[in-house]
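Form 12-C: Joint structure prediction
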Amino acid sequence: MTEPSPGSTSDYTLGQIGEFGLINRVARTVRQGHAVLIGPGDDAALVSTPDGRVVASTDLLVEGRHFRRDWSTGYQVGRKAAAQNLADIAAMGGVGSALLVGLAAPADLPLSWAKDLSAGLADEAALVGASVAGGDTVGSEILLIAVTALGDLQGRAPVTRAGAHPGDIVAYAGELGWSACGLELLLRDMDGPKPALARHRSPEPPYEQGPAAARAGATAMLDISDGLLADLGHIAEESSVAIDLDPAAFPIEDQLRETARKCGVEVLDWVLTGGEDHALAACFPPDVELPPGWHVVGRVSERAEAPDTPLVTVSGHPWGATPGWDHFGRS
Amino acid sequence: MTEPSPGSTSDYTLGQIGEFGLINRVARTVRQGHAVLIGPGDDAALVSTPDGRVVASTDLLVEGRHFRRDWSTGYQVGRKAAAQNLADIAAMGGVGSALLVGLAAPADLPLSWAKDLSAGLADEAALVGASVAGGDTVGSEILLIAVTALGDLQGRAPVTRAGAHPGDIVAYAGELGWSACGLELLLRDMDGPKPALARHRSPEPPYEQGPAAARAGATAMLDISDGLLADLGHIAEESSVAIDLDPAAFPIEDQLRETARKCGVEVLDWVLTGGEDHALAACFPPDVELPPGWHVVGRVSERAEAPDTPLVTVSGHPWGATPGWDHFGRS
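Section 2 - Result
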């Protein structure tokens, strides 16, 4: 779990060693998790699904949009790429079992960067007992990582976005606002709390809280990738309910509040609209005993009849700032 | 299964409708296969795996390297992207159950192209009873499609690349050389047999032959994506055997032979080294009754002790031309 420094060894490029060289040098050195019956090197991987079902999620990360090589090492990008997919598995109430990784890379990508990426993917996957079971490597003008995570529900019903009921409480587990804070510091080239920079480079989703919430009876759940307000909007939409949040209920760390002040930013903007922390948000029946680590921050109500009523409000009002992040750049 | 003409309707771009617009307009309109328990729109898909295991394979297709928009419609690219992944599932002896699709696209990509892509993916998946169960869409400077196929072994042992034995026969099912022929015609802007152009744009893997070969007792199998010689090299490598092919045993269509002559190309070059047909090649014990559609073209022998002995030969000799295709351009 130590973090290799980037580009330290005598370095080949992907163009020099070729596709099969990459597969042999990197993919096959990975230690496989217990669920992987056939790992890299064949036409396909074979993964155990004791539950008779498999949870599966895909995300793409594009250089310049989802990561920057001058801000993050290959190792950090690997951890982030694995984390955001494994968080999707946790958000269904499942536990990750395997990753499939597609790497599109320019021929001049240093082999050490690809190895660091692989180490980051492997270390993050190992946190839930998973491993990289297969993938593909192609040449490309841009650097892009496509990760598919597979996982197991351990016999439980999936927790979707569609099950929230009026009267439910809204809670979250994990961190909110730290990734947005880290991004702001990097954009301003400012010094700030180490956790903010670290979380932006590699989020730390609370994986175990997904199954814990499912066991506790969560009615709806998702992971926070586009900002809490935007993502709760998906639950409100899919469940045909409204959600109101209490801004005073968020346990905001002094360091985060202080850094927001220095940046001239409303700290709740980071907490409510910052993406990429990969915290989990869920709704629970009001009488449920929440697992440790969950913070109640709102309540589910009937959706108003009037069209254009906001689905998610803060103290009864729409939040002023832009509620999320649209990857094609529309506001 | 009709092929929509590209760009025919009044057309938005992806940048105009945004990421969520795309997901809602395209992904959710897809009819789901019987194995998909939760389709697009949640954190992850949920797919039935009655076998207690899942076969999983990922491939990336990059515009300009794996397809060209002036040569292929979105529909054809969708069929090809699905086909090459579902062929990997068949090559393990399995049947595809679901696809996850990542689309990285420039903001000016016409919505109609994305819809055509989606229709092609859906139609190809439907050939094996599968469907597109989920995915991701991101903005990107280039157009790239990342497909992950999931599949079911129906209780059988997987057929890997590592099980061939000396004395086994080598056979293939499907088509060889047609995709290479089509590529040559497109590169030369030449007229030629329609099947060649069609196969290069969208291969037609013999999906049902994968499970059929597994049931018949195939000892090793893979799909031909890099050329028969190169791909049989993987079986020889993984199984620690040698393979010799009989060039007279290949049933070469007159149309293919005639087109090769017009192009001044050795037709066996297309058949032995042409990639992307996604035929299946397999080894079988010598006494096996082959399923209909398999052609015996060679034999497995002990690997010679001497280093540098070629793993795959044709009539006992190495084939002169370059045996395959390395995606980073090394010869």
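Section 3 - Comments
The two ends of chain B are 39 Å apart (CA to CA). Residues 16-152 of chain B form a domain with the 60s Ribosomal Protein L30; Chain: A; fold (CATH 3.30.1330.10).
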